[in-house]
Prior knowledge:
Blueprint: H1 4-44, E1 51-54, H2 55-58, H3 61-67, E2 73-76, H4 79-86, E3 96-100, E4 109-113, E5 121-124, H5 130-142, E6 147-150, E7 156-162, E8 178-184, E9 188-196, E10 199-200, E11 206-214, E12 222-230, E13 236-243, E14 260-267, E15 276-286, E16 295-297, E17 303-305, E18 308-315, E19 325-331, E20 335-344, E21 351-360, E22 369-375, E23 381-387, E24 404-412, E25 422-429, E26 447-452
Parallel strand pairs: 1-3, 2-5, 10-18
Antiparallel strand pairs: 1-4, 3-7, 4-5, 6-7, 8-9, 8-16, 9-11, 11-14, 12-13, 12-15, 15-18, 16-17, 19-20, 20-21, 21-24, 22-23, 22-25, 25-26
Amino acid sequence: MWLAVPVGFLLFAGLATAYNYYFVFANTQDQSRGQSLSIAGYLKGQGNQLTLTPNRFYANPAVNFLLQGHYPTLTSIDYDELRSLLNSREKRAQPVYLLPHRSTSQSAFTLLVPAADGKGTGYLLPQLSPAQEEALSQHTRAIPPLSSVPDSEQEPMAQVYPLGADVLFWPQAPLPVESAYANFGHDVLLTGYHVEPDVVEPGQPVTLFLRWQALDRVDGDHDLFIHLFDLTTEQRYGQMNASLGSTVLLPTHRWPAGLTVRDRHQFKLPPTAPEGVYRFELGLYHRSSQQRLPVIIGEEGQATGDSIILGKFRLQSESPSPPQQALRYEFDDGIVLIGIDVASVPGEEGEARFTLHWQATGPISQDYTVFTHLVDSRDNLIAQRDNVPQNGRYPTSLWSPGEIVLDPYILHLPPDLLPGRYTLRVGLYHPQPGQRLSVQNGAMAYVELPLAE
């Protein structure tokens, strides 16, 4: 009798295992296999039709395997090339796009273009932006599907919609991209990036777009890490780790040589994040070994580390307050001194505290040093500071066109300095040649601002 309980327990466990394996798991696998066969069968049967399929279908391993004979080539395409294909005079059936049943939106797509010899091409599109994805959803809800793709049980798996070159979710202009050249372990090249929006309000998400290229067929998978940090304090306020290519559902081991992959990653800062400028640090590491890949910056560069810093945005709830004293001094390279706030003048507290208000009228080509020299009425130098704006943390080359930058200073003064007439001289220079920037319509390469009488 004492054996009855354990034997009964083992018998029950064995029956449960058999049920899970032979019924639940088997049916799940059969259902997944049936869905893959249905999708692959539809895509292979589209004779002379261009078909835009979400990577949820195309990148499915079983579907992708079944399509290899019909679409052996995977390459990249941009939206202008896509429009040319859709507007081609070659006689083809109405182009279509698929979406999963009961779905109105996806963000990653591949265009399948058949060929007369049966060896067609898959064109990987740039990942849709959040705005494009919403436009796709609205467009899809506004039109009826042409047909549906049933599974083996004749239940709809996907809806088929007409695709035109002028559909609303195609961008009217290409996404602006900052060029880059960062070679990760001679496997993958980062060729560009874009941050959207440039100014973020508290609680608003920010999106980092990345453009990658496979230098050769990648052996194994790489993971991507991105850290988001405050430029002033260097404190981290966000991070993510993900398989490289996961946002378009194509891990790196499936990237052919030369493939360009454009993906996006979205962040939302915590409510405690301070206002200011933020940047991204990113790198790659091997999935299996967890070892980071060395990074080479520039085509002629040397390995400089295992991560790079790029992009920037401003967290800002409202526009900066206007300066106490408005100015307009235009320096070379699109840098304008538009004002100054004076918190304390010489002779009051043993220091002079003030904030310069700068504005960039366009992209700034170099990192310049600001000099602030305090002189008395006899032109004697009393105090000075030479530094990159915001105490060395915000180089001028990072300023965005139109951006207003508040640049605070404290000049420590001799303890016996008496109140009187003092003048602040402000200018900029390039630290390598030491050449000062000229002031438009000015006789000197600096401006003079009286601090006290």
